[in-house]
Design a protein that fits this description.
The chain has helices at residues 22-29, 33-39, and strands spanning 13-15, 53-55, 63-65, 72-74, 117-119, 129-132, 138-140, 145-151, 159-164, 169-176, 178-179, 186-187, 192-195, 205-212, 215-217. With 226 residues, the chain is mainly β.
């Protein structure tokens, strides 16, 4: 049985690594924390074991392997929007953009705050961008969608919001002083969702991430010029 720990997880599953939490796995796979709990019948989400296999797509979903070989994202046919989601995501709120081609120029974000980009995306040390500003400044939804996480359970992110924008993309907003929406809320593009702060950070800034099927991508390529 030990040798199985060295194999890639089967399609639709994620193998727990040292230091993983369920919240972080949800962010990395682009899924809803509560859905992963349900799909795996977890009695205590805080007790997961290294090398444990977790289902990270809905049961019965068609899956395709990720490049890293550690998890997969649901796909169905050629339409991004037809991919299976969880039951609680519902229709995407207006203002989330055209994702028929799911690429820059087809999924257009709005700036969540206006300010200087003080730290750029590099996919190694920084999986998003950091935008400077003033404590208490409104943070707005970069795209419409549904809130799938609101809390401070991910180390290094402080008060964090994650919004599932559609079946392909999610956006994450970290270090907020105050969260103004809760899990399950539908939001529209431009809606005020938080106040900028410096929770779990040494400076006031919004850490903003864009994930495509769980994989970090540079948000700037999906944002208009400031």
């Amino acid at each position: 049985m030990q040798s199985g720990f060295l194999q890639k997880p089967p399609p639709g599953y994620y193998r727990v690594k040292p230091g993983d939490t369920l919240s972080r796995i949800a962010l990395e796979t682009g899924q809803n924390f509560h859905e992963i709990v349900t799909w795996n019948n977890l009695a205590n989400p805080d007790q997961i074991e290294v090398n444990q296999l977790l289902r990270v797509v809905p049961p019965g979903a068609v899956t395709a392997p990720r490049e890293a070989g550690v998890s997969t994202a649901p796909v169905a046919g050629t339409s991004v929007q037809s991919a299976p989601l969880g039951a609680d995501t519902g229709p995407v709120a207006s203002g989330s953009g055209d994702v028929s081609a799911a690429g820059p120029g087809h999924f257009i974000l709005a700036w969540p705050v206006r300010g200087p980009v003080v730290s750029s995306f590099d996919n190694t040390r920084n999986k998003g961008i950091d935008i400077g500003g003033v404590a208490g400044e409104p943070v707005r939804a970069a795209a419409g969608g549904r809130v799938v996480y609101a809390g401070n359970g991910l180390r290094g992110y402080g008060n964090l919001l994650i919004i599932k924008d559609n079946s392909t993309f999610l956006t994450a907003y970290a270090h907020n002083r105050v969260l103004l929406v809760k899990e399950g809320d539908a939001v529209i593009q431009g809606q005020e969702i938080a106040e900028m702060g410096n929770t779990d950070s040494d400076r006031v800034a919004l850490h903003f991430e864009l994930r495509r099927e769980g994989k970090p991508v540079d948000p700037v390529t999906y944002l208009p010029p400031q």
